[in-house]
Specification:
181 residues; mainly alpha
């Protein structure tokens, strides 16, 4: 008898590359671009609030670059997770939208990096357009993150089976958490 479709999406295509059962690498890798890009937006806003802001413009630009590199690494592992989801399912459609939005955001940030390099260089001004592109890209990333959460927490993609999860809630011998005195 074939494995149910929802169980297929829980198993990695390659445990060595995507992470073992119940421990996917993609969720931890996405913290790099998220953190870098949030930091770049904070630097862009701070650029307009301080007296000598050049270091903030440079910092934002390099955080954007770090985020693009981190996003590409996370995407490689994310593709492996996508291959575990059966095509033609709601989870697969959500995963495709999640992937598409993430790729668009990565391209937008790569363009933002290029724009900053093409202008006055890394210590140039952070114009309103750059700041807006950063903010809009981060908002789209938030939407994509919501969809990624839906994949994991609603559809259970790459999450351990419920029976495996239940093991964590079995009381250990002599330690039920209740007072006996």
């Amino acid at each position: 008898m074939a494995e149910p479709l929802h169980q297929q999406a829980k198993r990695p295509v390659s445990a060595a590359l995507a992470g073992p059962y119940g421990h996917p690498f993609h969720p931890i890798l996405v913290t790099v671009p998220i953190g870098a890009w949030v930091g770049s937006l904070v630097f862009d806003i701070a650029f307009h609030l301080v007296h000598d802001p050049d270091f903030l413009a440079r910092g934002a630009m390099w955080l954007i670059a770090l985020g693009v590199i981190g996003a590409l690494v996370a995407a490689l592992v994310g593709f492996l997770d996508l291959f575990a989801i059966p095509p033609g399912t709601r989870a697969f459609r959500v995963a495709l939208l999640h992937m598409t939005l993430n790729l668009l955001v990565t391209v937008a940030y790569a363009g933002n990096f290029w724009w900053r390099q093409a202008g006055d260089g890394p210590s140039g001004s952070v114009g309103a357009g750059m700041l807006a592109l950063n903010a809009v890209s981060l908002a789209v990333l938030g939407l994509s993150g919501y969809l990624g959460g839906k994949l994991a927490y609603h559809y259970g993609v790459r999450v351990a089976h419920e029976s495996t999860q239940a093991e964590g809630f079995v009381p250990t011998h002599g330690r039920t958490g209740q007072h006996t005195g």
